[in-house]
Amino acid sequence: MTSPKPIPGASVPLISRLATRVRAARLNMGLPRRALSERSGVSPRYLAQLEAGEGNISVLLLHRVAMALNMNIEDLLSETPPFDADVTRVAQLYEQASVTVQGRVRALLAPENPATLRAQRICLVGLRGAGKSTLGRMAADKLKIPFVELNDEIETEVGMPLSEVMALYGQDGYRAMEAEAIDRVVARHDKLILAVAGGIVAETATYTQVLERFHTVWVRTSPAEHMARVRAQGDLRPMEGNPAAMDQLKSFLTTRTPLYEQALAQVDTSTKPVQTSVNELLAVIATNRFLESIGTQ
Q1: Which CATH class name applies to 12-79?
Q2: 62-120 pLDDT, tens per residue?
Q3: What is the 3-state secondary structure (H, E, C) of the chain?
Q4: Domain 103-107+115-292, what fold?
């Protein structure tokens, strides 16, 4: 039986494609041809012919070359362009990462809707003294879900009180730790109530992540009650030696109000008993279905 005749020129695109991809992969890795030869066990002369489009390399030898270039042999031969070096490197890093990190990567890349990204996480924002910690703790206890104070999370992670964190690392260092703490909370919890510092809205990237990953509630009150509650907690810093403290507080409220208003809901605690405000927060959570799974929304 006569063997079929080869089609003239049929292999030329394949050989040309193979030559281009081998050379590009080698250069992307910064490998001299002799180094690739040593890694693959294929002679420099053979490699030179391969990259020139003149090679008639065997499948076994080509497999060695692909392995030395951290590629699959299919990537060198397929008509579809292979991933570039950066994408391949990202894929390798993903495979080596922990389950937690892989989950965060998937969450960032998946085309999910906002409700899915927020899961059942609730974050209370607002100026100091509005009642975030008190309301958050009491509501979480009622709902039987975790409550986390972000500053406590930072102190636990670095092993020192917040005052020392600020003294050693300054405002910029604290803001970086705040962003990292948000990442940890998101990775560890799909359901919780989180209370954050009032100034988190000033860090655009961190606040954007809060808005994307949490159902946010602005806990607010009047300037006078802000000041009175902080002093009642034994912190005289807002007033001591600073007669213009109330003006500064009002200025903070004016500046940050447009940012706080980006929250999904609000609870005004002005002139209200604590339990009344807690009940209002619970009502906001229920009405907005913040703790319902995405499948039931």
Answers
A1: mainly alpha
A2: 777 878 877 777 766 666 655 555 665 676 677 777 766 766 676 666 656 677 789 99
A3: CCCCCCCCCCCHHHHHHHHHHHHHHHHHCCCCHHHHHHHHCCCHHHHHHHHCCCCCCCHHHHHHHHHHCCCCHHHHHCCCCCCCHHHHHHHHHHHHCCHHHHHHHHHHHCCCCHHHHHCEEEEEECCCCCCHHHHHHHHHHHHCCCEEEHHHHHHHHHCCCHHHHHHHHHHHHHHHHHHHHHHHHHHHCCEEEEECCHHHHHCHHHHHHHHHHCEEEEEECCHHHHHHHHHHCCCCCCCCCCCCHHHHHHHHHHHHHHHHCCCCEEEECCCCCHHHHHHHHHHHHHHCCCCCCHHHC
A4: Rossmann fold (3.40.50)
